[in-house]
Every structure is written in C-alpha cells, then in structure tokens.
Amino acid sequence: MCNKYANTLEQILMREYFQVMREHDRLGNAEPLPAIWPKYEAPVVRLPPEGDRELVRMHWGFLTPQVSKKTGKPIKPAAWNNARDDKLRTAPLWKDSFRNRRCLIPASAFCETKGRSPAIDVWFGVGQESNPSPFAFAGLWREGQAGVEDEEGTWLTHTMVTTVANDLVKPVHPLRMPVILAPEDYGTWLAGDDEAAFALLKPYPPDRMFVFKGD
After folding, report:
1. Whole-model pTM above 0.90?
2. Which contacts (CB < 8 Å, 24+ apart) does range 22-29 have?
3. What's this protein's family per the entry (predicted)?
C-alpha cells in the first residue's frame, strides 16, 4: 500500500508533460511537494466534459464516514488512498469512478515502508537515478463524499490504483504497488473504454525504475 508520494515537478513542466494548456491550469501557484500524505492536496490531471485536459487540486483519498466504536458518534472520515485493480469494476466505492472519472496523478517518486522498529522509507523513481523522469499514476476521482459532513464532504478527492508488485518493489512491499502508466497510454486511461483502460493495469517494468533513497 502506498501512503506517501512526491511531486516536485515545476508547474510549467507539468503542463508540458501532461499536455495541459495554460488556460486549463487551475492550480494557481503550485509549489514542489516532496511528501504527499493521505488527505493532502496535490495536482491531478482530469478530462472534464468539455474535453480538454485540466490541472486541478484534489485531496488524496476517497472519504467515507466513520463512527467511534466506543461512543457511536461520528469521527474523522477514513481516507481510501489506494484502489485495488481487481476491485475497480465491482466495489461500490470505485466502480462508478472507474467508468466515468479516471485521472492522472503526476508524480516524481513514491514511497513504500519496509520493516518495523525502525521502519525504513524506500523511495522509487522512474527512468534512471542520474536522469529521473516525471510520471503518472493511474487514478480515480470524485466530487462530494456521501455521508461526510462539513468542508470535507465537498472535497474533490483522488485515489491511486494499485496492482501486483514488480520485482523491484517486492523486496519492500511483496504484494502491491501503484499502477504507473506509460505516457503513450495517458489518453486511453483518461478517455478510453472500460476494457481498454482496464488492460493498462499491470506492474511497471522494473528495469525502467530505480530505488533512490532510503531513510
């Protein structure tokens, strides 16, 4: 499960790389984000009804209401920041967004945690360590969180799709990794039919990735 990623891309590079026209950049002044956690805001590329890609801010994690087991009263909502690929077409939380609201999540790296006491953060990048490449996770988004009150209930939220881990990620997280899309597949993920989009959900080639930092 990925609980932290980074997007340190310059705003103009994001527009160029993801083919977003300046007038459709809704970010304002976007600062580099070296660590993005669940519920944090981060840039997302989506395809609105008008048909031109736009850059918008969304909070990471679909929200669902929670109540205290002790008191039965509402507590802070849960943030579902990972969506399993094998659940996208059946799980009520994901299936409508998979059909109608897919997005690209710009990134420069992602983190998986290995071990406990102490836990070690291991960061993964795309390309080569000497020449890292920007990339995008396969994502879903939605607006408004049913049953969640106050400001959080009106948030735009995104979640990243996960698949089985490749051979580079397995030693750190043996089961899952985020779906990283090849640039030539961005258009299919955003606007292709369900079958074409679902076919993209596979592990990224390990020889096109690197481990670049561990804390």
Report:
1. yes
2. 24/52, 24/53, 24/54, 24/55, 25/54, 25/55, 26/54, 26/55, 26/56, 26/57, 27/55, 27/56, 27/57
3. Belongs to the SOS response-associated peptidase family.
Residue matched to tokens 């996770």: 137
Query: Is residue 123 classed as helix, strand or coil in its secondary structure?
Result: strand
**Residue 204 carries which DSSP code?**
P
Q: Terminus-to-terminus CA distance in the chain, angstroms?
A: 18
Backbone conformation region of residue 32, classed left if phi is above 0, alpha if psi is from -120 to 50, else beta: beta
Please give the structure tokens belonging to residue 159. 């979640």
Strand partners, 179: none
CA dist., res. 32 & res. 52, Å (int): 24
Token representation of residue 22: 């300046």
Contacts of 16 (CB under 8 A, 6+ apart): none
- What are 134-145's pLDDT values in tens digits? 999 999 999 999
Domain chopping of the chain, boundaries: 4-214
Q: How many whole angstroms separate alpha carbon 103 and alpha carbon 26? A: 15
Considering the domain 4-214 in this protein, what is its CATH number? 3.90.1680.10
Q: Within 10 Å of residue 161's Cβ, how many Cβ atoms? A: 26
